[in-house]
Amino acid sequence: MQLSNELSNHFLIKIPSKYKTQFAGSVVYITHHNLYSGAQGVIINKPISRTLVDMFKNVDMTQYGQKWGDGTLYFGGSVKPDNGFFLRKAATDQLDGFEITGNKDHLDDLVKSDGELFMSVGYSSWAPCQLETEIRNNNWLIIKGHNDLIFGMDPVIRYDEALKLAGVKNIGSLYCGGDIFA
Q1: Exposed, middle or buried by CB within 10 Å (0-12, 13-18, 19+), for 38?
Q2: Has residue 37 been placed in a domain?
Q3: Close Cβ partners of 72 (under 8 Å, ≥ 6 residues apart)
């Protein structure tokens, strides 16, 4: 299988395995990828019990309105779990923006703009060729990135919807080689 050297703006869907990792049941939006520097992304389907107000204790969130202060935060991955990472909804159906910030000025710009905002704490990262190896080992399915998967549905169903977009109707019947799972 020949892998693309560019998986930015794609989703990874974790194939079930007998091994429980932070990625079990995850859909990851890849924000940056190339063969030389590796990959970065955020898990989009694991909400946590914190809000933007909790994350930015030194920022007066009342100026942004209830929508932003009470916004759901997601576990984006184990890299820099004390930092906030933003996805903004693009003008087209395809995602095209990822903002990494803990900076109040960047937060001001993002929340004052129109549209929806996705925020995670932490992000996911792979070393050069690590993600390609995981894909070759059948750890991930890959689909093109679309706004609706992040902004148009409940996070609880994002994994199942991503599988449907990948053409998988019954995860129990999926076998990609490697480990057998129960």
Answers
A1: middle
A2: yes
A3: 47, 51, 119, 155
Residue 31 domain-assigned (yes or no): yes
The domain of 108 spans: 10-173
5 within a domain of the structure (yes/no) = no
- Kindly state the tokens that stand for 15: 């194939």
DSSP 60-111: -GGGG-HHHHT-EEEE--SEEEEEEEEEE--SSSS---EEE---HHHHHHHH
Work out how many domains the chain is built from and give that number.
Answer: 1
pTM, two decimals, is: 0.82
Q: Does any domain span residue 4?
A: no
User: Tens place of pLDDT for every residue, the chain, 182 residues?
Assistant: 445 558 988 999 999 887 778 899 999 999 888 888 999 999 999 999 877 777 767 767 666 666 666 678 899 999 988 777 777 655 555 555 555 555 666 666 666 666 677 888 889 999 999 999 999 998 999 999 888 898 888 999 999 999 999 998 877 666 555 554 44
The Cα 174–Cα 59 span in angstroms is 46
**Integer Cα distance of 127 and 109 in angstroms:** 31
| H or E segment and range at residue 158 | helix 158-165
Count of beta carbons in the 10 Å neighbourhood of residue 128: 12
Give the CATH number of the domain where residue 14 resides: 3.40.1740.10
